[in-house]
Write a structure and sequence with these properties.
Blueprint lengths: L1 H7 L12 H20 L3 H14 L3 E2 L12 E6 L3 E6 L10 E6 L4 E12 L2 E9 L12 E8 L5 E6 L37 E4 L10 H14 L9 E7 L4 E3 L5 E4 L2 H16 L7 E6 L16 H9 L6 H5 L3 E5 L2 E2 L21 E4 L3 E2 L10 H13 L4 E3 L9 E2 L3 H5 L4 E6 L1 E2 L7 E4 H17 L1
Parallel strand pairs: 1-2, 4-13, 4-14, 14-20, 15-21, 16-18
Antiparallel strand pairs: 2-3, 3-13, 5-6, 5-10, 6-9, 7-8, 7-10, 11-12, 12-22, 16-20, 17-19
Bound molecules: manganese (II) ion (2 copies).
Length: about 450
């Protein structure tokens, strides 16, 4: 009977029942590289910088703004304002025949500093924030934070700021109310318990010597001036992001899980990056996108809606033909995380269509919410194509849906690729505590997602 079941039933498998010792070692090896990348890439800019380092080491060169079409085996990258990155490896077939693109994003939920952030209250110094992306605000209080970003000065120069990453450097915190005095707060809903305007970062407490008002603010500003040469007005042209200060760590007695900030979606970004760095001479040109601004709707010059993508593809074609013509022949894997079934919260999932930890890369035919609204729905033919690619390459995969019908939902960059007339399907790593300051993935799923991305490039 088991044989008949094996033949007739869809039976997803726990990866540890199917991979051999050699593949387990390959998985560990891959995850070491991923964890190092994640640890070093705390913001979209850092994710791009780190990716360029890896790409250059693998023989990629900056794309020249002029020149002919990409040659077979040629490896190029183009950084879009340092916030998103596009890479390509030239295929044996010309660009006329379409390309294979994998698109992930490297921005993650965080607390951005406001443009006029610094103030003092009760002789404590604070930095005001405006949160970025979808967060449960209560998760971001009373945890250590680091400050990363840039201050652009009027003279055209840019000051890089990283405070709190190195051992021994100071870190930051958004304070929360003690339980003893939280009787009123505890009656509020979780959505209202922490207010956005109260998410101010504690920045210091020592007053400037002398008499007068705002002495703590002045002392803090003078530290920043000494260290970075900036004044309060320079915050106006700064992008400073407070991100969780947790190190990336193995989790569990068996070390099978990975804990870290920003795994949505740097886990898939690294998977497709690692894949394209190994592609030598694909049938069709391989394109890898690390996009910005996905968490706020893929808007802006560095988001996936931007025409920067058309420009890049145009350059790969040698700038001589309409990119529109080749989009319809192309294939896109939108590489983004999906929600893993959390046995502590099974009520939000319909188990038969939920992604499980250790069951491999999750395919999502559609995303969206409430009757598939806003979904990019991959065609049946496209799902079949990805099934075939993964089965032929020994990739463990599972079919999944983001939660129960009418429970909520979400989206990815898939819709913006499909809008361009590119056949697009979502596939990525199942995540526990998605969008939390410390997200959890399984090593095996990270590795299988990488194998899926590599197989899609190699299939052409
Ligand atoms: Mn995502
Ligand atoms: Mn997200």
């Amino acid at each position: 009977m088991d044989e008949v079941k094996e033949k007739l039933f869809y039976q997803p498998k726990n990866g540890y029942d199917v991979i051999d010792t050699q593949e387990r070692l390959a998985c560990e090896d891959y995850c070491r590289g991923y964890m190092a990348y994640l640890d070093a890439a705390r913001t979209e800019r850092e994710a791009v910088t780190q990716a360029i380092k890896l790409a250059e080491a693998a023989g990629f060169a900056p794309l020249s703004p002029e020149g002919g079409p990409i040659k077979p085996g040629q490896k190029v990258y183009w950084s879009n304002r340092g916030k998103s990155l596009m890479l390509a490896v030239g295929g044996k077939k010309p660009m006329d025949e379409g390309f294979v693109v994998e698109a992930a994003h490297v921005d993650s939920p965080r607390l951005d500093l406001k443009q006029v952030p610094l103030f003092e209250d009760t002789e404590l110094g604070y930095l005001r924030t405006h949160y970025y992306g979808g967060i449960k605000k209560y998760q971001w209080t009373a945890i250590p934070l680091e400050l990363h970003g840039v201050v652009a000065l009027k003279d055209g120069s840019c000051v890089d700021v990283v405070i709190g990453r190195e051992p021994g450097e100071p870190q930051f915190v958004v304070t929360d109310l003690l339980p003893h005095l939280a009787a009123d707060q505890m009656q509020k809903t979780m959505a209202k318990g922490i207010e956005g305007e109260k998410m101010c970062i504690l920045a210091g407490s020592v007053p400037y010597a002398g008499e007068g008002s705002d002495r703590v603010k002045l002392a803090l500003m003078s530290i920043l001036h000494d260290r970075y040469g900036v004044t309060e007005a320079d915050f106006i042209s700064a992008e400073l992001e407070a991100v969780p200060a947790f190190d990336v760590r193995e989790l569990g007695l068996d070390r099978s899980l990975i804990g870290g900030y920003g795994q949505d979606d740097r886990v898939c970004a690294y998977a497709e990056l690692a894949a394209i760095l190994q592609v030598e001479a694909p049938e069709r040109t391989a394109v890898c996108i690390l996009a910005d601004k996905e968490e706020i709707g893929s808007v802006g010059v560095s988001g996936m809606k931007s025409q920067a993508f058309e420009w890049f593809i145009g350059r790969l074609c040698g700038g001589q033909r309409s990119v529109q013509e080749i989009f319809s022949k192309s294939f896109c894997v939108s590489a983004d995380v999906t929600a893993a079934l959390d046995p502590m919260y099974p009520e939000v999932m319909e188990k038969q269509n939920a992604a499980k930890i250790n069951y491999g890369v999750g395919f999502c035919k559609f995303t969206g919410s409430r009757g598939k609204s806003g979904a990019s729905d991959a065609s049946a033919e496209l799902v079949a194509r990805l099934r075939r690619i993964c089965d032929e390459a020994g990739v463990l995969w599972q079919m999944c849906e983001l939660g129960k019908v009418d429970q909520g939902g979400g989206g990815t960059v898939a819709g913006y690729m499909a809008d361009r007339d590119i056949d697009t399907i979502d596939a990525g790593v199942p995540v526990l505590s998605m969008h939390a300051p410390f997200e959890t993935t399984a090593k095996l799923d990270c590795y299988m997602t990488y194998k899926c991305m590599r197989a899609a490039y190699n299939a052409g």
